[in-house]
Amino acid sequence: MPQTAVAPVGTFPAKRELTTEPRFSDRVFRGIVTSGALSSLLILGLIFFFLTYQGFSVLRSQGLHFITGSNWQVIQDSAGNIDPKATQFGIAAMLIGTMLCAIIAIAVALPVSVLSALFLNFYAPPFLKKIMVSVVDLMAAFPSILFGLWGFFILMPSAEYWAKLLHKYLGFIPFFKMEVPIFARSPFVAGLVLAVMVIPIVTSVSREIFSQTPLDRIQAAYALGATRWSMIRAVVLPYGRSGIVGGAMLGLGRAMGETVAVYSVLNIVYQVNWHVLLGAGGNVASMILLKFGDAGPEEVKALMAAGLVLFLMTLLVNSLADLIVARSGGKGR
Amino acid sequence: MTITSVIRPQKPWQASPSQRLISALVLVGAIATSYLIVAITPMKGKLAYFFMFFLVFTLFDFIFHLVSHSLPAAKDAIARAVVVLGISVAVFPIISILGTVFVRGYKGIHWGLFVHDMTLNSVSDPINQGGLLHAITGTTILVLVAMVISVPLGILTALYLTEVRGRFAKPVKFIVQAMSGVPSIVAGLFILSAVVYTVTKSYSGFVGSLALSILMIPTIARASEEVLLLIPSDLREAGTALGGTQWRTVAMVVVPAARSGLVTALILGVARIAGETAPIILLTGGGDAVNGNPFRGPMGSLPFYIWKAWAVGTPESITRAWAGIFVLLAIVLVLFILARFLSERRSSK
To answer: Which of A159, A180, B7, B305 satisfies CB 3.0 to 4.6 Å to B135 for a cystine?
Structure first.
């Protein structure tokens, strides 16, 4: 029987077909949004691809020596061509410098940040907390060149004095030994500037984690007669431990990739230097900036390879940090 | 019988006047003792005063609490002192930075800064000649072009994470987090290898903006995601219940509801890149003349100007660098306060 447009009285119109299929407009919308979201994946992939592509010849000719060696010299033969046998690119000295500066930064920043986060969450009166949170967040938005100039003109004179004190009283520790007394522009100063830069990052991550501490456990601790400090030690710190570690690694990643601030305060010397107070060192990022200005085509390729190593290192540290931060919370005693 | 006395709420935890007097005495005693110690011993300097005061105060407070209360209370007193020390160490650099920039920067600020560029002057000329016009216009153009690229991508990413929630939601979230940690110099090198060496063969403002967008996208995406997550699901359900497709619900309900938050995300992104220096040095070429065309010719910018003036190192050029920092910091501060103001208003509604 053919369907009529008007249903006869007493019968119902045919059931509308229900479907979860999205409409055409929605499919277009989802397609656009998805491709927009995948753009960041694409960008990261392209960064990896192009840096590898440019640095590949150097990586192949230098092999593992690129990471383990610490010579950086472009040797030209009499005709002005680059001699591939004698030319050496090794970034070990700069890798060590990167780690040294970043570790000093975290060693200084971590206690300060955790204490600040504890203050903001558990000690500060509300009005002070609001102001302080804004101030710390503001500091995270400061441009790095500002930290560089401030570090060079303001922090360095004081830091030099502190370095002398450290050398005088703790000189027996191998790291603080000095053969030549050059205290200016040392990895120690660079580490302090980096510490100032990462304090806001680590503080805001720790604050976030601490503020998620279950209130019932806090109140339970108080009800059992705990003082504020014993409550923090028994409840907050165990709960937030992995979050603190994640925040510290996030800061480490930031400190490893910092260019301009390190370049401004550090005396970049291409040598392996374990003495943190000695005024010579460098990190990969600032080395790239320094060498880039007068680099020939072959050297630029080596710098690209160095950029690739830096990229992979920061990516690794940041991903680990994110995993740790994401997993933290919901645990504890 | 009627109750004659009104029961007052009591606060037994509040410090009594005598306790306050004792704490004040502890404070005064600590100041005096630390002053004496620094005066007698060979230590000198503000830092010595500060730390000696801290040590002595902590010790006095510890003893006082040990005598008047108990060991746990005394430990609590130490912890409080250490935590306050932590926040002071964290905040001190900010005050120092703001103070330094103001004191050293305002000497270099004059009206000519905003109407002249540096074509006829070198950075070592007296400070009242030449200006920042090329740098300010350059930074504005760089930021605007970067915004045009990264605002759509950032907001689309956030919409994907909150609205579409497709198959790739987890990896995309992870990637965005990882991308926010990409060092700025790597972004610069990437654009150099992918665009400058292969396509344009020359430095320009546009390639600088490309590198800045790489740094800006994750900032915008994360901030917008946070905002969109705060939009109550009721609104989305209401939109769908009225017969809207997902696209119409998002475009006409969710995004308008999150508008001020998205603007905040945008401002945070701009603040993130406005002072970014390393990729600018690698990519833009940094001219001294006003250049309105991002696709052709070197483009000056505030970070580059500061960098150049600082590297020259004469007293005039360093004053110029501080003046440049002053302007840059003022821009960042205004943006930041604007972002705070907008998000405050949103949360109070």
So the answer is: B305
Asked if A149's CB is within 8 angstroms of B325's CB, the reply is: yes
Q: Among all residues of chain B, which has the CA nearest to that of A42?
A: B175
CB-nearest partner of A132 from B91, B247, B303 = B91
Find the Cα–Cα–Cα–Cα dihedral B187, B189, B193, B196, rounded to 10°.
90
Q: Which of residues 94-153 of A touch B (CB under 8 A)?
A: 111-116, 118-120, 123-124, 132, 134-139, 141-147, 149-150, 152-153
Give the best residue of B61, B83, B222, B320 to mutate against chain A (max A CB count within 10 A): B83
Asked whether A325 and A101 are in contact (CB, 8 A), the reply is no
* pTM value > 0.90: no
Structure tokens at B124: 């070592």
| ipTM of the prediction | 0.87
- Give the best residue of A139, A165, A260 to mutate against chain B (max B CB count within 10 A): A260
CB-based burial, B236-258: b 16+ in 10 Å, e otherwise: beebeeeebbbbbbbeebbbebb
| pLDDT tens figures, A89-146 | 888 888 988 998 999 999 999 999 999 999 999 999 999 998 998 888 888 888 889 9
Domains recognised in chain B with CATH numbers: 20-107 (no CATH), 133-348 (1.10.3720.10)
Rounded Cα distance between A209 and A121, Å, is 10
CB contact under 8 A, B174 and A322: yes
